[in-house]
Amino acid sequence: MRRLLLAALLSAAAAPAVAQTAPQISVDTMKEVTKTLSSDAFEGRAPGSAGETKTLAYLQEQFQKAGLKPGNKGRWLQDVPLVEITAKNVSALTFTGGKTPLSLAYGPDMVVGTYRVTPHIDVKDSDVVFAGYGIVAPEKGWNDYAGLDVKGKTVIVLINDPDWQTKDLNGPFNGRAMTYYGRWTYKYEEAARQGAAAVIIVHQTEPAAYGWNVVRSSNTGAAHVADATDGHMHDTAAHGWMQLDKARALFASAGKDFDQLAAAARVKGFRPVPLGVKASVSFDNTISKQISHNVVGILPGREAPNEYVLLSAHWDHLGHCTPVNGDGICNGAVDNADGTAALVALAQANAKAGPARRSMVFVALTAEESGLLGSAYYGDNPIYPLSQTVGGANMDALGMYGPAKDVIVVGGGKSELDGYLNAALKRQGRYATPEPTPEKGFYYRSDHFSLAKHGVPMVYFETGQDLVTGGRAAGEAAAKDYEEHRYHAPQDEYDPKWDWRGVEQDVQLYYMIARDLADGTAWPNWVPGDEFRAIRDKSRAGAAR
């Protein structure tokens, strides 16, 4: 059913006016760049490390050799100021004023942190409000904050979208498929826009798509944010998560039934509910600032040089990490040295083909592993106007599984770029497979999202699993093996025995999509009702014509 639905969406989407043929992509280039970037000499490519210095020098050399021009006003680099914030001396999160005072311990019961660049956070006796799913979606007539001023208050919200329990993809928020409104990052952002002092998400394993262990490990160490002139003081003072059983206890103390209110929050027209209790939490912050860098190159367009098509991949990885059998370098060969290598090979192939009608921008991004910070910085501080950026594609962790009959489309049905992907797949005799777990919101977890949230349509797909040799069973086994034994571990290393034929196929797809966009005149948009459509429409309405 999902495959049929996606096929219908793809066939209805905009198709390119110019159909590119698959070019020769240099596998030798991709092998060499991947091998170099993932070598121990680059120390896992952590931002701010000696490995970054080597990576930047190498990528500038490779971009220039491929035929690109410096993409940032004569420079190859875009400075990305980062801030590392580590919470310490974290107090319990307490709730008073109800039937029973509650005290939630940091780690087992709750996690908390801040984006504010300040040495101390103190939220004291803040009124607590349950704001359902914490969503404000005017295009859907949905406002979980309607009728209540939450300035200075602590907001409790649910994870995912109101229709996450739907078994199909039909619903006000795309049913089972998560929209950005369901992501924890959005919940934090909207609470800040509403002026809340703090926002706490109730953890539930199924709609979150991960257990409390992931929440705890991801939120009890150093956090990174892009530096900002206001020190992120516009954000909530505190944000975090709480265990489900603690949420139930809190609501009971307030004389409310959690399950009843959670069910009510799934229905359009829900209004926020004051709980009649007060929240307090405090902690200190250790703050460290550093400058990292995006690497930017451009192939100027021959007829419309002020219109841009963007291709991206993140160059960073985890650097030094927990040793396994004495090896303490997380080399990130698949994640994402091979994606960066593909970016270089695409630059090489497009330069060889000659200028396209529009300009083509190639960006190797920093700090993806720290929370998409390099792409977020580019989105907030674009070198080329986003209103004039036609669209693009992002490459992350290309799978070394061999040639496949399909690709897995992440975020299928969101934009008219599906038509471009479908046209390119048809030329290869391949097909699109919908992502098997749309409820996990993978579209919002890699660098393309940072452009999408500013309205720029971005396509993203993963290596297919219906392998030419061995079929889907072999593909699923290969993907599982990588995830369980190499992903984010020292074992993600270059292997000279890799079969590059599948990667070559996928990079040819990226070439055709990008070149179709760059040689065309169309401005693909998000489909009507998508959460990014209004942003794009507003951006294009104000664009230079």
Task: Describe, in short, the structure shown.
With 545 residues, the protein is an alpha/beta fold. The chain contains 15 helices and 22 strands. It has a 15-stranded mixed sheet that branches. The protein has a three-stranded mixed sheet with strand order 20-19-22.
How would you describe what is shown here?
By secondary structure, this protein is an alpha/beta fold. It has two domains: about 1-80 and about 300-540, Aminopeptidase; about 90-285, Glucose Oxidase, domain 1, CATH 3.50.30. The chain contains 15 helices and 22 strands. It has helices at about 1-10, 25-35, 50-65, 185-195, 205-210, 210-220, 245-255, 260-265, 335-355, 375-380, 415-430, 450, 470-485, 500-520, 535-540, and strands spanning about 70, 75-90, 95, 100-105, 110-115, 120-130, 135, 140-145, 155-160, 200, 220-225, 240, 275-300, 305-315, 320-325, 325-330, 360-365, 390-395, 405-410, 430-435, 460, 460-465. The protein has a 15-stranded mixed β-sheet that branches. Strand 15 (about 320-325) and strand 16 (about 325-330) form a beta hairpin. Helix 2 (about 25-35) packs antiparallel against helix 9 (about 335-355), helix 9 (about 335-355) packs across helix 14 and helix 11 crosses helix 14. The longest helix has 21 residues, at about 335-355. It is globular, with a radius of gyration of 23 Å. The model is unreliable at about 1-10 (pLDDT under 50).
